[in-house]
């Protein structure tokens, strides 16, 4: 029986406004639509759950309307919360502005998810076969980072840790970041985050440095490149660019989260890393064709997408061969 994904990151409520373009300083825009949705780490958990993993949440939710909203969203996806809610704070929130070119801008307000203590983490027990995930958001919070780093370092040796540094990587104190990287089994980051850790260079050079100098216990590194796919570097020295899929994007919010969740789900089923990366590229591609951060596809939808793509590629190859 496969283990669980134990998510010890953060979940917040997203207040999503769709606009044609970001307003200039001192001006105002009227949104074309508005939605209140579960966000943050919830998107990654949904992707892992819909593609076949049992997911539990080891962060902290709040007491209040946003915490209640998140609890209902967790319940709808079958995600259990292992920790008690904060008695004094509501969950945090994030204002997300999605522009007409499908790009997004965020402003966040931390809440209960930013206040981890040893007592809060005490109920989060790890079992054989589990996978653990954390993100840079929780490590950026002054009142959570030390507790989480201590908890991560105390994980049993055989438990894989997946880490996404996220765009707030510059807000994580380097000693904390180094401690988590030293325990990381799989690092998944975008090109900017990779360069923030390991310095500038082409993706392959940076990936090599990430493993050799920053993730000594790592099995591999995934550097995500949006619609272009990702690059996978394996600890045994192999590197492979895994191309993405051409789709018409309507909302890129949550695409990285979907990629990570599907990648971990694939690994947990025994997929080789590059196969899991292609599976994750497909899931992320499907997610950007749908509105909302938690728009991850199911395993069946992802497999159907891959099958249709492969059939179309084969048919196109036959047509070209016939033409020549």
TrEMBL record:
Origin superkingdom: Bacteria
Protein name as it appears in the record: PfkB family carbohydrate kinase
InterPro entries (UniProt xref): Carboh/pur_kinase_PfkB_CS (IPR002173), PfkB_dom (IPR011611), Ribokinase-like (IPR029056)
Keywords, comma-separated and alphabetical: Kinase, Transferase
UniProt keyword Transferase present: yes
Region (Disordered): 290-324
Any single Pfam family the record assigns to this protein: PfkB
Residue stretches of biased makeup (Polar residues): 304-314
Domain Carbohydrate kinase PfkB, residue spans: 5-295
One GO molecular-function entry: kinase activity
PANTHER family the UniProt entry points to: SUGAR KINASE, SULFOFRUCTOSE KINASE
Organism: Mesorhizobium salmacidum
Cleavable signal peptide: none
